[in-house]
C-alpha cells in the first residue's frame, strides 16, 4: 500500500503554515527518503506562494524551489512530497493541481483544507492518469528519526 509518513510535529508545522497565510494557499516541499511505495518525510521546507492568484492556486517561488533542492542534496534527501493548502475548499486536487501533478506526479501531494481541517494525500498514476488517494501515516517523532 502506498503511504507517505510524517510525524506529528511536521503535521503541526504544515497546518500552522497554512493558518498563517490564510486566506491564501500555503505551500511547502517535503524532503525525505523513498522506500518501496513509501515516502518518508524527514524535513519540511516551508515556501511562499508566488502564484498570481494565491487564494486559489500556488506556485513555489523559483528561488525557494532551488533552495529546497539544494537543501535536499546537502542532507542526502530527495523531494518526497508537495504540500499546499486549500483555505476555503475541500482537501482534494483542483483542476490547477491536476495540471501540475502531471509534471510533478511522481510524489504524493498533501492538501490541507482550512474549511474542515482534513489532510489528504493524492498522486496521479503515471500509467492510467487517474487520481489515487495515498495513505498518510503519522508516527511519533522518537520512532521516526
Shape: globular
| Tally of discrete structural domains | 1
CATH architecture: 3-Layer(aba) Sandwich
Order of helices and strands: EHEEHEHEEEH
Low-confidence stretches: none
Distance between the termini: 22 Å
Average pLDDT rating: 92
Q: Give the class-level CATH name.
A: Alpha Beta
Outline the biggest β-sheet.
7 strands, mixed, barrel
Rg, alpha carbons = 14 Å
Please indicate the percent range of residues in DSSP E strands (runs of 2 or more): 35-45%
Quantity of strands, as a count: 7
CATH topology: Cytidine Deaminase, domain 2
- CATH homologous superfamily? Cytidine Deaminase, domain 2
Strand order of the largest sheet: 1-3-2-4-5-6-7
- Overall structural class, as computed from helix and strand content, comes to alpha/beta
Q: How large is the count of helical segments?
A: 4
Written overview of the protein:
The chain has 145 residues and is of the alpha/beta class. It has one domain: Cytidine Deaminase, domain 2 (3-Layer(aba) Sandwich). It has four helices and seven strands. It has a seven-stranded mixed beta barrel with strand order 1-3-2-4-5-6-7. Strand 2 and strand 3 form a beta hairpin. The protein is globular, with a radius of gyration of 14 Å. The model has no long low-confidence stretch (mean pLDDT 92).
Amino acid at each position: 500500500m502506498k503511504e507517505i509518513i510524517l510525524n506529528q510535529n511536521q503535521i503541526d508545522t504544515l497546518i500552522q503554515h497554512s493558518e498563517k497565510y490564510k486566506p491564501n494557499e500555503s505551500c511547502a516541499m517535503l524532503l525525505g527518503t523513498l522506500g518501496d511505495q513509501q515516502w518518508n518525510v524527514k524535513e519540511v521546507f516551508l515556501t511562499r506562494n508566488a502564484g498570481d492568484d494565491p487564494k486559489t492556486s500556488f506556485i513555489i517561488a523559483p528561488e525557494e524551489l532551488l533552495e529546497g533542492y539544494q537543501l535536499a542534496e546537502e542532507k542526502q534527501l530527495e523531494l518526497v512530497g508537495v504540500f499546499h493548502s486549500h483555505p476555503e475548499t475541500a482537501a482534494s486536487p483542483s483542476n490547477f493541481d491536476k495540471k501540475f501533478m502531471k509534471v510533478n506526479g511522481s510524489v504524493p501531494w498533501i492538501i490541507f483544507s482550512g474549511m474542515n481541517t482534513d489532510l489528504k494525500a493524492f498522486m496521479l498514476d503515471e500509467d492510467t492518469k487517474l487520481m489515487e488517494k495515498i495513505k498518510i501515516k503519522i508516527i511519533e517523532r522518537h520512532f521516526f528519526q
